[in-house]
Amino acid sequence: MGTRRVLVTGCSSGIGLAVAARLANDELRRFKVVATMRDLGKRGPLEKAAGDSLNKTLEIKQLDVCCEASIRECVNSLPDRRVDVLVNNAGVGMIGPLECQSIDVMRELFDTNFFGLARLVKELLPDMKRRQSGHIVVMSSVMGIQGILFNDVYSASKFAVEGFCESLAVQALKFNIKTTLVEPGPVVTEFERKVYEDAEKMDLSGTDEETAKIFREVYLPYSKKIFASLGQTPEEVAEQTVKVITAEEPPLRHQTNRLYMPMTALKHADPTGRLPLDTFYKMTFKHDRVFNATLGVMRILQRMAGKK
Ligand SMILES: NC(=O)c1ccc[n+]([C@@H]2O[C@H](COP(=O)([O-])OP(=O)(O)OC[C@H]3O[C@@H](n4cnc5c(N)ncnc54)[C@H](OP(=O)(O)O)[C@@H]3O)[C@@H](O)[C@H]2O)c1
């Protein structure tokens, strides 16, 4: 296989930045990276991470996944419009009681997390079909498999992404185009900082006192503990993304965090949905000591496994 051109979205920070830098610095020089971001003013950290690869195996371009014109302009600027691998990574988060979130804000989240993917695929799929080759890699989440308390809208956007890709994958395969959903658990990035910052500022007057209390006193501390115990680095997720891109037979789904897998496995163990529902309910409201102890054990396992 020759050098492949990989277009990555959302490279100003976090996973996108790590994936772009990792691919550009690949020892075997297998990739030419088009690292994109909506605001080129934020290119500093990527330039630093790219190091010597900048303007050699990595070029930085503007692309806003919410703007069709910017997607087209970016793709048109590439020789033959060729993109061998799309890494659809740009995404935003949102947590909190549903009653405190406006429909407009929910729409904005879907515009980035779901319609952003749809726009990119619409632009690139016809070319990939003509060439009878390509790989669509999508940064989904474990929340695209299993919904989590107070993540209703974010989780819904990742379920949308999962359904879209699962359907598309069949048609794409007919044209020799591969599809992969990368499903990280918690990853310590700007994403985490931004959602907690928004949560602290959130006006909870739209919901009842009990819900507000559960969000503030149960969900937020638990969620922070989960990030501290199970959180991966963006570099770890990038390493696994590269494995997926270079696999001879890329999987449709790839979960990056082995420690999180028991949680997602519950879903498949009981088609009625009772098992994951009961488990998450009890973990949250009844057995907080067991939950905290489990996180403690996981933290130790994580350290012992060298954070694999
Ligand atoms: N962190 C986690 O725990 C976690 C877990 C599972 C999955 N994920 C997924 O991983 C992906 C990357 O998240 P991250 O953790 O790396 O978060 P991050 O550090 O906040 O990065 C998100 C990136 O998306 C970009 N972005 C947002 N809206 C955009 C738009 N309209 N057009 C182009 N770029 C846009 C951001 O750009 P700006 O700097 O301009 O905002 C930023 O570069 C997301 O899809 C997220 O859902 C994250």
Automatic annotation (TrEMBL):
<dbReference type="GO" id="GO:0005829">
    <property type="term" value="C:cytosol"/>
</dbReference>
<feature type="binding site">
    <location>
        <begin position="10"/>
        <end position="38"/>
    </location>
    <ligand>
        <name>NADP(+)</name>
    </ligand>
</feature>
<feature type="binding site">
    <location>
        <position position="64"/>
    </location>
    <ligand>
        <name>NADP(+)</name>
    </ligand>
</feature>
<protein>
    <recommendedName>
        <fullName>Retinol dehydrogenase</fullName>
        <ecNumber>1.1.1.300</ecNumber>
    </recommendedName>
</protein>
<feature type="active site" description="Proton acceptor">
    <location>
        <position position="154"/>
    </location>
</feature>
<comment type="function">
    <text>Retinol dehydrogenase with a clear preference for NADP. Converts all-trans-retinal to all-trans-retinol. May play a role in the regeneration of visual pigment at high light intensity.</text>
</comment>
<keyword id="KW-0560">Oxidoreductase</keyword>
<dbReference type="GO" id="GO:0006703">
    <property type="term" value="P:estrogen biosynthetic process"/>
</dbReference>
<keyword id="KW-0472">Membrane</keyword>
<dbReference type="InterPro" id="IPR020904">
    <property type="entry name" value="Sc_DH/Rdtase_CS"/>
</dbReference>
<keyword id="KW-0716">Sensory transduction</keyword>
<feature type="binding site">
    <location>
        <position position="141"/>
    </location>
    <ligand>
        <name>substrate</name>
    </ligand>
</feature>
<comment type="similarity">
    <text>Belongs to the short-chain dehydrogenases/reductases (SDR) family.</text>
</comment>
<dbReference type="InterPro" id="IPR002347">
    <property type="entry name" value="SDR_fam"/>
</dbReference>
<dbReference type="GO" id="GO:0004303">
    <property type="term" value="F:estradiol 17-beta-dehydrogenase [NAD(P)+] activity"/>
</dbReference>
<keyword id="KW-0521">NADP</keyword>
<keyword id="KW-0443">Lipid metabolism</keyword>
<dbReference type="InterPro" id="IPR011348">
    <property type="entry name" value="17beta_DH"/>
</dbReference>
<dbReference type="Pfam" id="PF00106">
    <property type="entry name" value="adh_short"/>
</dbReference>
<dbReference type="InterPro" id="IPR036291">
    <property type="entry name" value="NAD(P)-bd_dom_sf"/>
</dbReference>
<feature type="binding site">
    <location>
        <position position="158"/>
    </location>
    <ligand>
        <name>NADP(+)</name>
    </ligand>
</feature>
